[in-house]
Amino acid sequence: MTVVRTTEQQSEESFGRQSRIIALVVAVAFFMQILDGTIVTTSLPQMAATFGVEPVSMSIGITVYLLTMAAFVPLAGWAGDRYGARRVFLASITVFTAASLFCGLSGNLVEFVIARAVQGIGSALMTPVGRIIVLKNARKSELVHAISMITWPALTAPVIGPVLGSFITTYLTWHWNFLINIPIGILGLGLVLRFVPDQREEKVARLDFIGFLQSAVGLTFLLAGLEFVVQGATGLAPSVGLIAAGVVFSVIATRHFLRIDAPLLDLSAFKVQTFAMSTLSAGTASRVAINATPFLVPLLFQVGFGRTAIDAGTYLLFYFAGNLGMKAITTQMLKIFGFRNVLVVNGLISSASIGACAFLSPSTPDLLIYSLLFVAGLSRSMNFTALNTLGFADINAAQRSSASTLSSMLQQVSLLLGVAVAAAVLNLSRTIHGGETLSLVDFRWAFLVVGLIGAISALRFISLPHDAGAEVSRHKVKT
């Protein structure tokens, strides 16, 4: 029997194929951006030797990148609407790629810091504007798959970045950790020009400069404080002072956005339960656990177990495989069980796998470690995709740009907060038992605390309705 497809069905299939291609194009740019943030840390000692400075001085390259990115993230949604998301996305890739070239060609620390600052500006606009492009070109029925596509860089790049960086630094030179972005960036530019349509809003309000300044200062101070907690170089008082200042400016910015008619950021998205829970409250706590794990796991194997970086990289490959393995069934799992059940049950599995790492030791059989890391990667991937998709399930077109920017800002906070919490527990445990260096018991406490945070956040999602995000997941609730 011959099946004849209607014009409407053909149009639907064509639109779905186009949305998947656009999501893949955006994912390429995201991968370049996130890989850069993780790959550079492995080459800091070699870079310090090239520049003739102490290795500790190289941390300014990471910090300035983080702070310039924080300062310009609040501008992303407005810029995408004002000048067109495609045009801003192209500009962000161009700036990021060019800055990567100058990072690789830097001859001294000053040149490197300037290049990293420019790179941070490109990075700030890339993520929220890229997500806006995906949201504009995907129907709700395609949203899970589209978000899944642009989520995989955030899951895989932090895992493979340190391994790849170690290989490049060992067998090539540190310069290639930045120069590797050039072909990826050029590929991304070509793909955007070929596949991403030029879309822009008809009417866009003037730039809310006061709101931009307040939110930029608030986010910058907050992330700077968290970064200094992670580095542990400035002492507790300055870090807490910066965090407090960040909170104060963020509150001032929030009051400003609620008071004026055309704010830089439309906070009405937080009135949508699915967005608020998946990005601000339970979602932030869940991401703390998600983001702390890639920080703790390599340290556990290298510092706690005394293994080499190559050995640690071998373990991480199984974690990486788990992250990728879940992608094939994420859409189907959400369709069968719905967002609420997945976030609760999978969240508890993810938290249990994190907590179980506390009981690993150098004598634990490799097969058991591989299995645990694979399960941790599977559940982490599912949680990440479910959170990112649910956040935009009920967001309307008018809220889309601000919601994407707010989501990016909160994800930056949760990224550093996860690492800061893990680092704080490690240092607190070391101080309590009087150790000069980190020991296995310190890692045990860190994994248990992070796992507990994840479990509590998973239980918070019980308050979601059974049909939360059902239009996106296509989950049918039994009555």
TrEMBL record:
Pfam families for this protein:
MFS_1
Molecular function GO terms recorded: transmembrane transporter activity
Source organism of the structure: Rhizobium leucaenae
Q: Where in the cell is it found?
A: Cell membrane
Record's keyword annotation contains Membrane: yes
Q: What is its main location?
A: membrane
Q: Where are the transmembrane segments?
A: 21-44, 56-76, 88-107, 113-134, 146-168, 174-197, 209-230, 236-258, 342-361, 367-392, 413-433, 445-464
What's its membrane topology? Multi-pass membrane protein
Carries keyword Repeat?
no
The protein in question is named EmrB/QacA subfamily drug resistance transporter
GO cellular component labels: plasma membrane
> Keywords assigned by UniProt?
Cell membrane, Membrane, Transmembrane, Transmembrane helix, Transport
Query: What residues does the Major facilitator superfamily (MFS) profile domain cover?
Result: 22-469
UniProt-listed Gene3D superfamilies: MFS general substrate transporter like domains, Multidrug resistance protein D
